[in-house]
Write a structure and sequence with these properties.
The protein has helices spanning about 1-25, 30-35, 105-110, 155-160, 220-225, 280-285, 355-360, 405-410; strands at about 45, 50, 60-70, 75-85, 90-95, 125, 135-140, 140-150, 165, 170, 175, 185-190, 195-200, 205-215, 235-240, 245-250, 255-265, 265-275, 290, 300, 300-305, 310-320, 325-330, 340-345, 365-370, 370-375, 385-395, 395-405, 415. With about 425 residues, the protein is of the alpha+beta class. The chain has 3 domains: about 40-165, MucB/RseB, C-terminal domain (Phosphorylase Kinase, domain 1, 2-Layer Sandwich), CATH 3.30.200.100; about 170-290, 3-Layer(aba) Sandwich (Protein Transport Mog1p, Chain A); about 300-415, Protein Transport Mog1p, Chain A (3-Layer(aba) Sandwich). The strands form 6 sheets. The protein has a 7-stranded antiparallel β-sheet. A 7-stranded antiparallel β-sheet has the order 22-23-24-28-27-26-25. Strands 3-4-5-8-7-6 form a 6-stranded antiparallel β-sheet. It comes from Microtetraspora fusca. This is MucB/RseB N-terminal domain-containing protein.
Length: about 425
Amino acid sequence: MALRRRRRRLAASVAAAAAAVLVVIGVMSSYIVTRPDPVATSPELDGVRIGYVPEGLGAPQRLRTQEKDINGGIRLRGEALRWQAGSDFVQVSAYRTDGTVLDAMDILAMNVVDSPVEPRSGGDPVLSGDGTSAMWVADYRLVLKVTVSATLKGERDRIADALRVVGWSPAFAGLRVTYLPAGMWVSGAGANPDALTRLWQGESGRRVSIEVVYGRAAATLEKLRAAGQPPEVLTDVRPASVHGQPAYAAAAGQGGRVLLWLVKPGIGVRVREDHLPEGDLVRIAEGIQSPPESQGESLDGIAISLAGLDLRPGPVETAIAARWRSTTRRWIGPDGEDTVTVSIQRGAALPSSTWWRSVSRGEPKPATIAGVQGHLLDTGASTTSRKFTWTPESGLAIVVTAPAHDLRRIVKGIAVP
């Protein structure tokens, strides 16, 4: 109770001082009035900047934290910052995942939230039944959670809204994002079932989304334009160019703009923006780089080391499926029999039941090889070769077929950027 009285007195004095300043300078700015009050020094937690915590809770304590399911199994491990004064507390937790937690549905499936309230969409946070916590996928491989005491439930959303993912990687969905306007932060991973999506936002309503579409929906520019469920309605569609390739520029939504083009058949990109200065949309698009052509011991941007194996590389083959694209190379031994095949597969459908059926004749079996957690697959043939797959990140699967005695060495030699 004493803590609340102190907060009320402090809030009243701060409001009076702010009003006095505004009267003196003769300006009424909604931006100044509504901007979240930053905490002192804006602490960071695993690449996440914390912009607001209620006053009076003291200095934060850094903790190791974990999320357990209803059976006591540990599903997530991470770090947290906790502010506490008496029974009032705020805790912000960050969990780096293996890439399999993609949206709110995956959070629900882990059974780590007490009496969860089902969100309206996969991109929304999962709230606890008592309203004291919110958990969501903030970026690829990053889950955030805000937990507050019952007395501070009204501050939960304000704390969450002031979190900024500042340590984002330019690597995304097999491409590299090399330019965004200053002052923007990652705000989510999107929930489009047909595309790998990353979202950014900034002050004054600025927003950017980048969608990478793999598969038949990106077989041609016209198909990319019509992609989506339901297909997006674009207006004022005009021919354009990105990296010298044909593109479309159009209007979308309430005043937003979109630019879309094919990186190559089976790989399409759509960039959307709201409230950005003229020219920024083109600059963002031109700054999206594709990996170099597969050469040497690299395949679709993935480094593959076959040191110590007497193998001759064959040609690179590509295939376009419904919602993914594969790039495959085979290496052949001197006797023509000891072959190794590596396939890099990308798309929003990975992993899905349709995709699993395309790579395995029978039920995949969980396995760990060279420290990598994945699945052994049924090749449907009587052979000494083994087939192993894993998903290092959302929308990426690596499939290796190799002689059993070489499989561990090959898996160990594959490095994802």
